[in-house]
Every structure is written in C-alpha cells, then in structure tokens.
Amino acid sequence: MKTILAVIFFFSWGLFASAQQKNFDDFSGQFVNGYKALKIPDLDLSYVDGFKHIGTLVQIKQQQHFFNTINHQLPNYNVAALNASQKIDYALIKYETSLNLQRLALEQQWLSGPSGKISENGIINMPNGKAWYAYLLKRWVNDNVTPNQIYKFGLGEVERVKGHIEAIRRQTGLSEDAFYRHLNDTEFFISDTLQVQHAFEQAKAIIYSNLPNLFSIMQIAPLKIARGANSALAQTPGYYDDSVFYYNLFDKPYNIRQVDWLFIHEGVPGHHYQASIIAHGKTSAVQQLFFYYGFAEGWAAYCEELGKQLGLYKTPYDELGKWQWDIVRSVRVPMDVGLNYYGWTDEQALTFWKKNIRGQDDIAMREIARLRRWPAQCITYKYGALQILHWKQTLQQREGEKFDIKAFHNCILNHGSLPLFLVKDNVFKSGESESPHKSESPKANS
What we know:
The structure is a single chain. This protein has 17 helices and 5 strands. By secondary structure, the protein is mostly helical. It has 2 domains: 18-118; 147-383, no CATH class. The strands form 2 sheets. A 3-stranded mixed β-sheet has the order 2-4-3, with helices on one face. Helix 1 runs parallel beside helix 4. The N and C termini lie far apart (58 Å).
C-alpha cells in the first residue's frame, strides 16, 4: 500500500511540476517581452549620463506598473517545482524587479523635486545623493552591500595588498627607498613596439601551455594581440574588445611589470576566456537581457591571482606589477565611498592615496576624478575577485585533496553572466554534475 501511495504521490508531483514549469515559461516569456518593450537604458558608467537618461514621469509610472505586476505574480510559482534553468530565471526576475523598483522610486523623487539641474561635482552633491549612491553600489556590486560595509572591506584590502608588496620588497633585499628608486630604472621599460608585442605573445604562449592545469575547457575563440590606437584610452595600459587584446604604447615607454597581470586580466583566462565560455553556454532569454559587472570584472581580477600557476610571475618584479595595480584598485574602494557617500574633498582623497600608495602620485588626481564621474564602478574588481577567492578557500578547506580547481572554475563560468549571489549558489551546489566535485576531461586547444 505504501508503495502504491508513493507512486501516486510522485506521479501527481510530476504533473504539478510539469504544469508549473510550463506556466513559468509563459510568465518568463512575458517578462522578457515586457522588459524589452520598456526600452530601459543600460547602466551608464557616468552618473551624469544616467540622470540624463531618466525618462518622463509617464514612462516611470509605466515601468513601475510593469515591475509591480511582476512582483505580485512571482509568488504564484513554486520554485521547488522548477527545473535548474528556470530557478535561475526566477531568481533573476525577482532580483531585477527589486532593483528596478528601487531605481524608479529614486527617479520619481528626482522628477518631482524642485530642481532638474544635474551637478557634475559628484553624486554626493545631487538631491538625495547618498540614496542614489547606495542604489548604484547595489546595482554595480551586489544587492546586499552597504557603503559602510564596502568602506571597511576596502580598508582591509589595502592592508592585505600592502603586505604583499612589502613581502616582495624584502625578497629583493633592498631598503624601502632603494626599492622604489629601482622600480624607475630603465631595465623595466621598453619603447619598441616589436618588443612589447613579443612580450605579450610570449605571455600568451606560456599561459596557453599551462591552461589545462586549471581549466577543463580549451575550445576558446582565437585571440589577437595588437597595439591600441584609441588615444581616448591611453591612460590604461591595455584593454580587450571583440577578441582582440590591445596594449597601449603612446608617448611613454611600456612598463614590462604590467605584461603578465594585464594579459591575464584582459585576455586569458580573464575577459576573453570568460567571453568565449559564456558565448558557448546555454543562457535563457531572461539571462540575455542583463550583464553583471561584479561577475565580469571580479572574474578577471581573480584570474590575476593565478599567475604563478599559469607559468608567469617568474621574478618578484613580475609579480609586483600585479600588486602595484592592485593597490590602486584597493585604495580606490574606500576612496569611492569617501568621495561619493561620506563627502570627502579631493584633498582628503589625495591624502588617503599618498598614505597608502608610493610612487604613483602621477595618476592620483586622474583616479579621483574617475571615482567622482563613475561612482561605485571601480568596486566591482575587488569585491568580485574576493568573493571568488573566499569561495575557493572555503571549498579547499571543506574538501581537502578532493577539491577540483577545474570544476570550480566551470561552476563560475558555465552559467553565463549572473549576479554574484547566484554565482555563489552554483558554486556551492552539491550532488549535481556541475558541482565542484567533478570536472570534464581537457579538450584540445584551438
């Protein structure tokens, strides 16, 4: 009798789950069509541009009606009855609905306010500026973070990275002053394009030969290396765009300490590898609506930590290049909160910079100006990278020798661009084929 009841239960549950899944597919399809029809602007780097793209009060009310309707319909679906892909879609719809309603409330207050003038002196000087910054922090980074939490997180990262730099300084045997003088010696700089090109090609070859040690998917799109010609991006050492890694060699010699970490970040296994995996992944129509910078930049910054395992960072100075840029990223985190939430002046920010970074005063004001223009964006690198590092450390401690680094990386990348909380859910799933207990066999390199 018990067996018969069990069969009836599972048969009934199967019918219920099947109906739920079909109904949810209809619902998610309606969400995709409705969202597209609203023509919501993409997230702007510049808060000034973001304010310029705020719609009319009528458009805001249309969006509010759409997201409120979605919000009321979400409880109609039993998440347990959905399949794995639908569960991700459900979480994304719920997440995006919540954040969009927060945005719309702020936009409505802005349009209803006494002044429509946009201040270009920082978001802190805008009406309701602190609330706007708190929202942008959630939108760029993660929906459960606060300015105070991020500030403390940034201070911790500053000290951690300074510790790495000091350890390398001691490794060289040089005094602090002699060490920083030596970093400006001509041996670290090259001006010849062919030499710079060769340095990156060599880094690429080394990484590709070691990639199977850490990754199981080798079928990635071809990557070209070329000299950048866009002078508007000259302030960066390099960038990635459409299967091309560009290094910037303009009016200054190239610092060879930037070669290893930069190619890892922008090329492989950073942005290019990430883009290649996502392009071949099965992502839903819901997922294709959104892109998450905390995931994208966090992954690329995390990959820099793999330099030695990938065969790079052969000298202390090669590794130092990574930490020299990472201290900039780390210092920017508390500075971003300070400037855009606590109300720091440029002078206060510069003092903080000089207290924690030595030998890079020439870019300080440029970075401060960037933080004012693009509030919260710079935090994606550090926050995302540290989440991934912490997940890895947790699993390594939990699983010991059974920990599979290749499967761990698959769990992060194989589900496409997602908010960090969903990436974490995928990483810590147990008992499923994509969990960090089993990985695929390496495939031939393309």
